[in-house]
Design a protein that fits this description.
A: alpha+beta, four-stranded antiparallel sheet, 4 helices, elongated, B: 0% strand
């Protein structure tokens, strides 16, 4: 395109680049329409693909010969031990994660305190950020808890309250920006974390 | 310019059930995409309808968004398809309505009446393009996208898009120069 033609087209484009104004209630109308839609769900096939495609670090115990079978056994043992720990923990915990050690699997307890919540679930990089997978159970005095086995490493998470409110853990040891620039709560699972 | 929270984070939150996060995506893209829709369809009412439908379709299909980091391009493709369909459907049964309040109400030249006349001529010339040519012209010269980005949005190859842009430019120039003779 010649310079003259280019200049002509740019003059047209400049006029067409002038902003347009939407009606003031545009956002409200869109969100009202969106709220009538069923929640967008990730298909099972997609979840399996995400799970397979997500890079994971697996640490095997020194008794590596037992490999995964040993790890799973330890998880069961850890769950049994966790009950005692849960009894020891008191309402002085506002919200926190506690770890129980085993050789290959560490059980992490997540606690969230809310007198008003109707439901609380845990979402994180360990459960595909799926609010259906890890519900917390309500105890006395608005103490919601759940314990899950996690491998060593840093895990990002948040709480989903009443199925729609995204809440960080106020007592998480660190809350850092994730790779997309927004904060999630972080729990670090390691042998030294206790 | 990177905006926070990033699109991928917002998509992740919406998929986890936080519907309100979708409103941030709506605010983020509504102005720029409204401009494209208005220029494609020629009036604000149809453009708002196409844009609203596009947001709702995007929400409904969010789990199929393959690359949440590029949610904007994915939404653009949905909107472009909506506008193309609406423009094609309408061009077969009625003339394009030339009514863009913003374009007509905001003279930018030194002479107001000349400026209005120029804008009106541009609108008319744009209306004489086929929907495919209009889309290619707007994406390339108004939205300033690369051919690679245009391929993602339209699903067409770059040679086809270049041809559409060239024909659109020729027709626009022919129409506008003819009007000024």
């Amino acid at each position: 395109m010649s310079d003259r033609n280019e200049e002509f087209i740019q003059r047209i484009a400049q006029t067409l680049r002038e902003p347009v104004t939407l009606r003031a209630d545009f956002d409200a109308r869109v969100m009202a329409a969106v709220r009538t839609e069923p929640a967008p769900a990730i298909s099972t096939a997609r979840r399996i693909w995400n799970l397979a495609a997500t890079p994971r670090t697996v640490h095997l115990s020194p008794i590596a010969g037992f490999a995964l079978a040993a790890g799973l056994l330890m998880a069961v043992v850890a769950i049994g031990r966790e009950r005692n720990v849960a009894t020891m923990r008191t309402a002085s915990l506002s919200a926190a994660a506690a770890q129980i050690r085993s050789d290959t699997v560490r059980l992490v307890q997540f606690v969230f305190v809310s007198q008003d919540a109707k439901s609380v679930s845990l979402v994180g990089d360990f459960n595909d950020w799926n609010k259906e997978k890890t519900p917390l159970h309500e105890g006395a005095d608005g103490l919601w808890t759940v314990s899950i086995p996690l491998p060593n490493g840093r895990h990002q998470y948040a709480f989903m309250v009443n199925g729609e409110r995204w809440m960080l853990d106020p007592s998480a040891p660190t809350a850092v920006e994730n790779s997309y620039g927004t904060p999630n709560s972080v729990v670090t699972v390691s042998e030294d974390a206790l | 310019m990177t905006e926070f929270p990033a699109d991928a984070v917002l998509v992740q939150r919406v998929l986890a059930g936080d519907v309100q996060s979708f409103s941030i995506l709506v605010r983020r893209y509504r102005e720029r995409y409204a401009r494209f829709a208005v220029r494609m369809l020629g009036n604000r009412e149809d453009a708002e309808e196409a844009l609203q439908d596009s947001f709702v379709r995007a929400y409904r299909s969010l789990a199929r968004c393959e690359d949440p980091e590029h949610f904007g391009s994915w939404l653009y493709a949905i909107l472009a398809n909506q506008c193309r369909t609406a423009a094609t459907r309408r061009s077969t049964r009625e003339k394009r309505i030339l009514y863009d309040e913003d374009l007509m109400d905001a003279p930018s030249g030194e002479n107001e009446s000349e400026s209005l006349a120029w804008k009106s001529e541009i609108e008319y010339a744009l209306s004489k393009l086929t929907p495919d040519q209009r889309e290619a012209f707007l994406l390339k010269h108004v939205e300033d996208l690369s051919y690679e980005e245009m391929e993602t949005i339209t699903g067409e190859g770059s040679s086809t898009l270049k041809m559409r842009v060239k024909r659109a430019c020729d027709k626009m120039r022919e129409q506008l120069e003819g009007a000024n003779k």
